[in-house]
Amino acid sequence: MIFLPILALAGGFALFYFSGRGFEADEVFARYTAIAVLAGLDTVLGGLRARLSNQFDDVIFVTGFFANALLASGLVLLGEKLGLETGFGDERVSAMMIAAVVVFGSRIFNNLAALRRMLIERWRARKNLRESRKSTPEFREDLRGA
Description:
Layout: H1 3-18, H2 27-52, H3 58-81, E1 85-86, E2 93-94, H4 95-134, H5 137-145
Helix pairs in contact: 2-3, 2-4, 3-4
């Protein structure tokens, strides 16, 4: 199951890197792609968090991935069409893009903090289980007999 996302990532990279022409990305396209990638990263980390807490659902993950990416890109587009931009000259940035970066960035940090806590708790539980097994009389008898 883990190989499918890796294969898709490699395929997308090869499509844009080796094609040479036809798939050139300009600055406008890069803005939407950056926000969509940020939204996708948020969804992936949320999926890992759900997986570690035994609440993962494939349908929710896939629909959330595409819905978050499309919504984030759509909000940036809406902000640009409404003229909600800040900055001067060529350095203008959509205010909705800034809002999306702040929201998804905070969600990513929250998911990373929760994942870190879950992984540390699992590691500690395994460590305590190993130590408790070592202190049981059956384990000591097995060591003497060996």
